[in-house]
Structure formats: C-alpha cells, structure tokens
Write a structure and sequence with these properties.
The chain is of the alpha/beta class and 345 residues long. The protein is 35% helix and 11% strand.
Length: 345
C-alpha cells in the first residue's frame, strides 16, 4: 500500500474530501493507479485496468464539484468490478478465453448504480473461470496472489476483487457469491465482504453461475464502507424478476444501533473435523457468540433439515413447472427491458 498516504483508505473519507474540494477525484485516482502500477505485476488482481477511462470519469466528477453539483455519495471513490459483471463497451471475460474480446452492449445494474453515485471504475478483476472455483488460480489469464503473502491464494472466486482492496488498489470492489465467493476471499485477504440477502441486490448483468443462489456484494476495508456501498447498490430492479419489490433498508443509519437482541446462527456440523483448532477457539470465544452477551447464539443442526429438503425437491420442481406465474418469475417485463436498452443506447 506504499504511496497511498496522500489519500485516506476509507471510501467514505475519500468521498468527503472530494465533495468538499479538499482533494480532487483525479488526484485520488492517480494515487491508486500508481499503487496498481507498482503492485499489479506481482498480485495480478485485474484482468483489465481502465486507466484512461477512469481518468475521464474522475475529471467529470471534479467538473461537477467545481460547478457546485453533488456527484453523489461515492464521489471520486475508485472501485474495482469483478469481470463477470457486464460493462458496456468494456471487455467482460469471466476470466475465460471463450469470452475474450467480448464487449457487452449494456451495463449491469449494480455497476450503473455505483457510477451514478460518483464512483470511478478502475478495472475489471480476476476470478476463477466463470466463477467456478475458490482460489482464483483457475483463470485463463493467470492466478491472483494474496497481497499479504504472495505464496498464498487470495481465495475465490472473487479473489481479484478481495486482493484489489487488500492491496490498496481500490477502497471498494464488487464481487459475486454463490457458495462463498465473497465471504471466503474476504476472510483470506483480511477485508470485509458481504453476501447480501437474496433479492436485495439486482443480478441484472451478472453472468450467472447458479441463478437461485448468486448475489452481488461489496468488498471494503471496514464494515461502515461495506454497508455504505451495499446501500448504493441495493433496491428493487424491474430488470431482475427475483429482485425484492420493497425499498432497501437504511444500512448506514443502523450501524450505531448495536447488535443486542440479534441472533447468530451457528451450524454445529461446520465446526467439526477439519477446522483449524485456533479458528475453532476464536469462534467459541468470540464475545458476540457468548451466551448472555450482545447477540444470542442459536445452535442449529443441518443434517435432518437438508435430508428433508432433498426429499421435497422433486415435488417442488414439478410444482414450479406447472406454476401459472412461471413466465413472469423468469422475467417477462418487456417495458423494463426496453427502458434498459434505451438507457444504454
């Protein structure tokens, strides 16, 4: 992270100094581009670095500030985007030679919301090919390395996004999580990562792995920045038929409310054999999981429930095949899609 002393690492702090005019978005960007130039050869967090495009975007933010226009809550904040999220006119590969050179005709809703909030996209990050992996070693463009120890993996499949934040290449990054692809690399790289509640964040423009499980979420240096980013990208999207049709919760406002009264679910089977003893001890001793303190701990055994789900699955599939609302659930909002095409024209 050498060279980043000139700007704060916190995304919220960056936005504050840019909006106030204390620092320019271009200055913030150049500092992060310098960090990328110095460390990317070793870390390989990106498939594509968008230096010139980012400079144009940063200058546009500065022009808004100079004109007295508020660029938005993410004013001038550099953001890295996982390369399975579509970006209009920008190569989107899913780290596969199959899609090499493909430039989508539209932008994913989450990316569009970040840009409208004033964020500056610095690049598309590496991943396991088509997000099918957990180490970011299985990319057609080479592996990503953990910034804390380049002999180790960053986790995956969103390892490029986690590594970009950990290395100081960007204070925020977007990833996707199907079975751990945000949470696991966040843990391995020592940053904050969130897989949101299904339907809270639009999947429109995300190249699917498993549509009933995929969710887009943020990486950040701290919980407040992650909540802030999630609040920007959350909310109903008519282009995603599984999007929750309710206003997104005010996550940032709830940060100071504490955790008393919340329950933390702990699946006992996941703390069995194969867990490093030190990890097990830290979980057991964590203040948030001590009975009678802060949130309460609810033990849960998954085996019986999972067997029940397996027995009901054939009946569920048969029901869905004949469900009269199936067409709508799969997405038939032609008006919304037409509006999207017009917006991206």
């Amino acid at each position: 992270m050498a060279g980043l002393d000139a700007v704060p690492l916190s995304a919220s702090a960056i936005a504050a100094v840019v909006r106030s005019g204390e620092r320019s978005a271009r200055e913030v960007l150049e500092t992060h581009l310098s960090a990328i130039a110095a460390g990317e050869g070793e870390i390989h967090a990106f498939v594509t670095v968008l230096a010139e495009e980012a400079r144009v975007a940063a200058d546009a933010v500065d022009a808004q500030v100079a004109s007295g226009i508020d660029p938005g809550p993410l004013a001038g904040v550099p953001v890295a985007v996982k390369d399975n999220l579509c970006t209009r006119g920008v190569p989107t590969t899913c780290s596969s030679r199959i899609l090499e050179g493909w430039r989508p005709p539209y932008t994913a809703t989450v990316v569009e919301r970040m840009i409208r909030a004033g964020a500056v996209m610095v690049g598309k990050t590496n991943l396991d090919e088509f997000a099918m992996g957990s180490s970011t070693e299985n990319s057609a463009f080479g592996p990503t390395r953990n910034p804390h120890d380049t002999s180790r993996v960053p986790g995956g499949s969103s390892g490029g996004s986690a590594a970009a934040v950990a290395a100081g290449f960007a204070p925020l990054a977007l990833g996707s999580d199907t079975g751990g692809s945000i949470r696991q690399p966040a843990a391995l790289c020592g940053v904050v990562g969130v897989k949101p509640t299904y339907g809270l964040v639009s999947r429109y423009g995300l190249i699917a792995f498993a549509s009933s499980l995929d969710q887009v979420g943020p990486f950040a240096h701290n919980v407040a920045d992650a909540a802030w980013c999630l609040e920007v990208i959350a909310g109903h999207d008519a282009l995603d038929s599984t999007s929750i049709g309710e206003p997104a919760p005010s996550l940032v406002a709830s940060l100071d409310k504490g955790v008393e009264g919340l329950r933390v679910g702990v699946i006992a089977e996941l703390l069995g054999e194969g867990i490093a003893p030190d990890v097990r001890r830290r979980v057991d001793r964590h203040p948030a999981l001590q009975r009678g303190r802060h949130p309460s701990r609810g033990g849960h055994r998954a085996g019986r429930r999972l067997r029940g789900v397996a027995r009901r699955a054939p009946r569920t599939r048969a029901h869905v095949r004949g469900h009269p609302r199936r067409e709508r659930l799969q997405g038939s909002d032609r008006g919304a899609r037409a509006a999207s095409r017009q917006r991206n024209a």
